[in-house]
Amino acid sequence: MTETAALPRMAPALLPDGSELVLRVMPMPADANANGDIFGGWIMSQVDIAGAVLPARIAKGRIATVAVNQFVFKQAVSIGDLLSFYARVERIGKTSVTVHVEVYAERNPANLQVVKVTEANLTYVAIDREGRPRPLPRDG
User: Fold this and answer.
1) Using CB atoms within 10 A as the burial measure, which of 12, 32, 66, 118 is most buried?
2) Could you give the residue ranges of the DSSP H alpha helices within 13-102?
């Protein structure tokens, strides 16, 4: 999928690359700076939430973000954009899961445009009750 490729009006649950729709959210005025652009930190926090969905399933328990390996802001996000967050697992280690998250904005509903606004790679680690790394469960 290219950065400006149009998604169907109703975003699919899965993209062709296997990425899964894990979160949809619309930023509000409180999330914007004085110019009306959404704060990068707000977007980063939403990416972290979205990125944790698949690792939490895999870990079957508590996880923590241990690294933001890459984070690229491609376009500004505005109040009223509907953001769709897609995640796919890139790597599963002994205690950690690395995911790739892509964020698309649906804007201008009267003449719908869908654009990629952000992408990131994050790593999460499974942790025990004391916050120490623990092995991921091995199914099968």
Assistant:
1) 118
2) 40-59
